[in-house]
Amino acid sequence: MTNLADRQIPEYLDHVGPGWRGILMRTHAELIAVLPNYQVAQVKEKFGMLDVNLGAYVDPVTGEFGITRELGTQVRAILMAARDESRRTCEVCGEPGSETGRAWIKTLCPDHARPS
To answer: Quick count: other Cβ atoms within 10 Å of Cβ 40?
Structure first.
């Protein structure tokens, strides 16, 4: 069986640019505080934003599927805060950034948005 920690955010840091790793680690700390056994289904960049998707939750003690509505609200707020922060943070370096591009949207600072 796979170790639970193998399915949490620290194992997915390289799925997005290094500028968002701080956001991911803060998100991990906040999730651990409210849902210690959370599992990640996917971490990616989508439309210039950080997109973290959690897997189905099964309580390790009772075996029950799902979480309470209150806990779901907390988890959604944590994930939305990370997404919102990523919309203004350069994915490459972590400095303040904004959405760039048309066909492929990225959030980049002025230095990384310049064509090479």
So the answer is: 19
